[in-house]
Model the fold of this input.
Amino acid sequence: MMTPPMMTPSDPTGIIIGAVVGGIAVIGVCIGVAIVLRLCRLRRKRNRRPNQRRGVQDPALDFDIESRAAAERAAADKAAAERVAANKAAAKKTAAKTTAADKKAAAEKAAARLHAIFPEISEETLAAVLFQCEHDVDAAVSVLLSMNEAPVPPSSAPPASTLAPKKAADEKKAAAERAAADKKAAAEKAAAEKKAADKKAVADKKAMVEKKAAAEKAAAEKAAAEKKAAAERAVVEKKAAAEKAAAEKKAAADKAAADKKAAAEKAAAEKAAAEKAAAEKAAAEKAAAEKAAAEKAAAEKAAAERAAAEKAAEEKAAAERAAAERAEDKVSHWRMELDKMANARAELCKAQDRVRLLAAVAANEDESLRDATKVRNEARVALVRVLEDALSAHDEGEKERRSLTAEAAALQQQQQHGECALTLAEQVWRIGSDGL
Done:
């Protein structure tokens, strides 16, 4: 089986030429639009000159100029847009023609290769298979190899001598068409470049003339503006001098009025200050008298409080001495009771010892034993009485201790709450002193 030849990509020369021509056309259109806009702007500036150089401008004329300029701008924009659209259409048409020619040449070349590989298959079949495979020679060869088409009889196959001249003629025709397309694209490119250069030269010349006219106009306007500014400066300086003189006169009058007003205000202020000083002196004397009276009253109150405090201290000391004496008496009484208890206990022990001794050496009905037992019983009764007296004294002391403990706890709680803490004795003394 023969290996199919590799298919070379189509020549992109026509596409490149079409793109270049389209780009040149777009650039030329942009330059033309810029020139038209520039001319419209210069015409609009020229039409804005003052009416007969008097600084008075007709509104109707301004409106006519502006409307005409707007119409010219709209017409120029429309013409530029039409030119751009025409150039784009021409470039698209040229690119389509070039692409169609390239596709046709590639299809013919692929068909010639397939016919060279499969000379026994008809050209209609090869063309149909190639169209189905989208002009892919490798895919068409694979399809044709997989077909189980019956071989063509040798009598129906065209002779090889007629195929070679046809193939050469096709290739020659395709080469001639490509050369003609290249020549046409080069001619169009040269014409477009020449046209663009001519337009650029004309635009440069026109721009130079307009620039010169604009410079002359600007110089004339500058001179007129300087003259007008000088006149306006003179008027402004004269007006400023008059206003300055009037302002100085007014300032002098205002100053005199202000001095007079300041003198009057100063006299009134001095009178008010004198009255205020007299009032302050009287108030100070009154305050001093009130302060002396308050100090005297405070001294008397302090003396009375001091005397009351001394008296209260003496009474408190006397009460404390009495309480101490009472406590000492109670302690002495308790000690005396303790001594009585010890003596009674000793007498009881002594009587018990005598009873035990007599019980050991004498009979039960002995008189001495009965006497000793009687003495023991009396000693026991005496001890019980002494114990009762001691317990009674102890109960009274315990009761007083509990009362004092409760009173101290209450005083401490009142002191924690910030209240006045007085003992029961102090309260009794206070009630008595209030009654007095």
Q: What stands out?
A: Residues 13-148+162-228 form one domain. Residues 160-361 form the longest helix (202 residues). The mean pLDDT is 77. The CA atoms of residues 151 and 319 lie 158 Å apart.
